[in-house]
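Please, structure for the following, as tokens.
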Amino acid sequence: MAILHVRNIPDKLYRRIQKLAEEENRSLTAEVIQLLDQGLKTREARRGAAAVVARIRRQAEKVELPKGWTDAAELIREDRRR
């Protein structure tokens, strides 16, 4: 297993992590690993969601409405102006 040394952690942050570790009955090291894992999963989920939204937008740009149809976004804008 790899070893990671982190220096210059602000005292307030260190105490918060210590408190969490105590509340969860974990060692400080185990709590830091848990926090890092959770943080990475959250970030990866956000990136995944952003990629899905980008793909949907790209696909939406390719869609052509049948003749005579109005874009739903335009109908909503028109309704809001009323």
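Residues 11 and 54 are 40 Å apart (CA to CA). Helices lie at 11-23, 28-62, 72-81.
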